[in-house]
Amino acid sequence: MIRSSLVAMLAICADCSFCGKDFVTLGRHSWRCKEKINQDRPANTVNQNMPVMHSPVRISNTNDVKCYCGKSCKGTRGLKMHQRSCRVIHGLNDEFLTDLEQQSTENSTTNTSTHSTFEENDVMENIASDQNFPVLKKGVKLPKSDAEWSTADSYFKFELRLNAPIRIEDLSSSITLMNDIVYNYFADNFGYVEKMPDKELVNKYKDQTVKALKKCLKQLKLSNADPHEIKYVARTLRDKLRNACQINTTQNQNKTFNHDNYISRNFWGYVKNLLNKNTCLLACFPMSECVNYFKKTLCSINPNKLFCIPSWIPKLSDPIVNFDLQPPTYRQVTNIIRRMKASGSPCPLDQLSIICFKRCPFLRTYLTEVIRSVWSSKSVPAEWKKACSILIHKKGNTSNPSNFRPITLETIPLKVFTSCLRNAMFSFLTANNFIEHQIQKGFTPNLSGTLEHTAQMTNIINQARIKQRSVVITLLDLKNAFGEVHHNLIQSVLDYHHIPKDVSEIIKSLYTDFNTAFITSEFSTPFITVGRAVLQGDCLSLLIFNMCINTFIQHIKTDKYRQFGFITNLLNPVHWFQFADDAAVISGQDSENQHLLNRFSIWCQWSNMIVRVDKCSTFGIRKSLTKSIQYLPKLLINNELIPATKTGESFRYLGKYFDFSMSEKEHKQELITLMDDIMSEIDLKPLHPKNKLLLYSRYLLSKLSWHFTVTTLSRTWGTENMDSVVNKYVRKWLEIPISGTLSNVYLTSNKFGLNIYPPSIKFAQCQTVARNALKTSPNHSIKDLWKTTSESKNIQYDVYTSTKEVLKTFTSGQEDKLQNHLILQGSFFSNVIKFSLSKLNGIWSKSQSNLPKNIYNFTIRYINNSLPTRKNLTKWGILSNSDCSFCLNPETLLHVVAGCQTYLPRFTWRHDSVLNFIAQTLQPVNNSNLFVDLPGYKSPSIVTGDTFRPDLLLSINSDCLYILELSVGYESNLQTNVDRKRRRYEDLITQQKKPFKSVKFVNLSISSLGVFSKECHSFLDMLNDLGLDKRHQYFTIRKIMSIAIRTTYYIFCCRDKDWLNPELLNI
To answer: Per UniProt, what is one Pfam family of this protein (predicted)?
Structure first.
């Protein structure tokens, strides 16, 4: 028996594939084998082979996880316990030291043989001697009508004859010819945009008052002064009178300035000049300092340095899909031009707007041929390698150039060309899976990278706090990230990603001898050569920068580094977030985070990137006894201590605040402060209520949308802290008492609402967008995150599929509230929804918006029945008796505007005012006889006799007779009036069919607030039969509505007063 068992044991023994020894089972030897450990350690040679790596894999049907070394561990905690003593993990430290020594040796060798090309001496002498200043062209005006654009396109087709493809030797002349012909045509036919005034003129008239400017302008015209100075003074005077920036805050001048006209003429101009106090700051430094700074920033450092891909960066596999080297087609160029924003600024060197290429098909054809020629030549022409850069203030002192962000304005043809190049490169990289989209999510099409990263980080912090697990998060900041990209690094990165040589040569040609001039309101510098950096504003810069970062991501995405991440899912640990240059390192322990930071520091040494340690931060959570606490990790990068987030404080990543409890307190505070500031600022403006509501809905809600998207607030908090603030101001602007409902206000305009909604609904819309972005993400880990979080009770927005559904649900709730719960305040809505002509409701809203403030607010309070009638005043405890002072019946709203028998002369005056306008509209109809039951017109009794006397008769050529009967009553009686008038005039219609071939009865029943009943479609048919066009018909309807509203307002204001029989209202 012993011999047989021994034979069986030897038969099943296993051989180690590394050391060759025999074992009954490999067991612990699989992760303790010295030969395996030595093989995993990198050799000192450059061409070392990467070992086969295994991720921490979950074993089927168990809770075990395999370490990178191959050992099986029980769960996440067992894996972490094992990694403390794992020799393979400890071997990574030796690998780091080897890579660091190798990189240091390469850097020292490079630095001894190269130097910077910038010298700071004699900067002013160089500027004085340098004559290479840019020639800035004046902006040109563009056509406004389609006919003018069609004429321009025909002219370009005639002048830019394109009989054959453009030859490479004719490329420069063709580009110059196109620029000159297009610019000169618009300049000669439409003129120039007013140029920036001289500094002397600005200083001369800067502090002049309106009175002094008028006097100076008069003297300049009499003395035949320089036309440019006359135009400048005239424009300054107009700005003083019209532009809100120049208006003093005195009450007298506020009365003379019409805010409502300004906001209706230019909404966003009003917001920028009067509401938004964050005005852009201009540069306050001299040209010499500007040239000195940007020459130093853009100069080439170590121009001969070669960026050989180090051995620790794994090579990409050969491409499966080949690069499409065919030149762009007309359709591709057209698609790019159509996607470019029409508001983009043209380059001041040629002043060619993208609008020219959008509106002129032949220019797109010509540009396509130019681009195809440049593509074939593999060289970017010198005409395109000149640009201008403007300076946008970031923060800090305006006298320091480093506090400004340069934005490059390239010529439009170059933008289109680089966009074609970018699209071709991105398609190639995506098809071959060369770009990592699980980690790098910056500026990636069809990917909400910001939302995905912030949602994942929120989930990680919540998981660590709730499940008492350790997590360390480090945020990294690169100094002048885009500006530190070495041009030789670009070529190495392109080769690494298998970009063809032809494309690499084009990109190299683009960045060779590229020059840009910096322009401010005070000066324009000479051209400065861009020796390094990818310029912001260049269409290629984002993709190239992401490709540079991708070399590091390919390194750290390998399994041996990925296992350091925080494990929310056993199959997918999260260890690194990257959004362009914003990086976040996530791990479970300090040592693991430090190891990832060490790898990043080596990559920065290789790529010449600089880490700003003072802008970095670190955050930690760990278990203490039976609960989780925040602690201060001690991590280093480049031998400097990274600042730790203090206990109880938060850090900010991609615009979202994160703290230990994820309380969102910073976002809440910013939301409340922002809302209070803007709403109070709107409240102080002397604006019509409709314009105040417009500022709220279009400006304020858009300012809050980012906070609403990234935060996870509760609906209750939003209702209590945001809706209450908005409701308070809405009631104040519309003069709605506290007892009046706002449900009518929150309806859409076609249902007699004001088309606004509270902030909580905007928050629900933003959350719906964020949740749908996670749900439809191409990354499976994000979809898993959505599934996991969708089970939470706090997620209330997965039931919506779109923002329209959110709004529809909200308005449906308001309608149900008005119809089924608020009987009195919802009576208007309940009646008009049943009996009104729905297609005219939108016209009613436009008529309402054109009313003065007092009548506008009257209509709002009329709709929700909150006007100060005696009945309401009694309910509010102001009066003790609700009886009418004339007839002693209860004075309700219906009683005042359409019910009191004593008020019949008032109701007749309203009726006759509307009828008089209709008669004036129909009087000019040709071949017609008009009979109106009003003084000054022929009486209808001439035709109908004394038995029937309709309001209006219109006969056409004795063949057709229109019988119009007008009723103006309360909304609840709309259908009743229709039925009553139809029965009353049935016999008259029958009688008149004998003398007339056709008799048409127009039953025009409108409410006291100008709402048309469904039967009023016969009135529209009559207007159409009489030959009135749609515009004239809608004008007539708006006037009828306006007269009805104004007369009802006057009747209400005259309640409890004697009637003085005013003249008929005529507007």
So the answer is: zf-RVT
Question: 490 and 474 in one domain?
Answer: no
Among 798, 822, 846, the domain-final residue is: 822
Contact by Cβ (8 Å): 569, 784: yes
Q: Find the mean pLDDT for residues 664-693.
A: 93
463 and 524 together in one domain: no
CA distances from 356 to 336, 411, 412, 517, 865 (A): 14, 13, 10, 24, 55
Q: Shortest CA distance to 271 belongs to which of 244, 237, 294?
A: 244
Q: Is the model's pLDDT at 461 over the cut of 50?
A: yes
Structure tokens at 886: 């004339």
Digit-coded pLDDT (tens) for 61-113: 445 666 666 677 766 667 667 766 676 666 666 666 666 665 666 655 554 44
What's the domain count of the chain?
A: 4
pLDDT in tens, 543-554: 999 999 999 999
Query: What are the start-end ranges of the E strands in 410-478?
Result: 471-476
Q: pLDDT value at position 29?
A: 65
983 and 907 assigned to the same domain: yes
Of the residues 469, 497, 532, the one at which a domain ends: 532
Q: Are residues 408 and 333 in the same domain?
A: yes
Find the domain containing 374 and state its range.
296-304+311-434+486-532
- The mean pLDDT value for 321-330 works out to 92
In a domain, 55, yes or no: no
Is residue 940 within 8 Å of residue 953, measured between CB atoms? yes
pTM: 0.82
Residue 423: Cβ within 10 Å count: 18
pLDDT of 205 strictly over 60 = yes
Q: Give the H/E segment covering residue 585.
A: strand 582-587
Q: What is the chain's mean pLDDT, rounded?
A: 84
Distances (CA, A) of 789 to 76, 441, 781, 783, 1000: 21, 21, 12, 10, 65
Is 606 in the same domain as 468? yes
Tell me: the pLDDT tens digits for 137-158?
Answer: 888 889 989 999 999 999 999 9
Residues 589 and 694 in one domain: no
Long-range contacts of 126-129 (CB under 8 A, 24+ apart): 126/291, 127/287, 127/288, 127/291, 127/525, 127/526
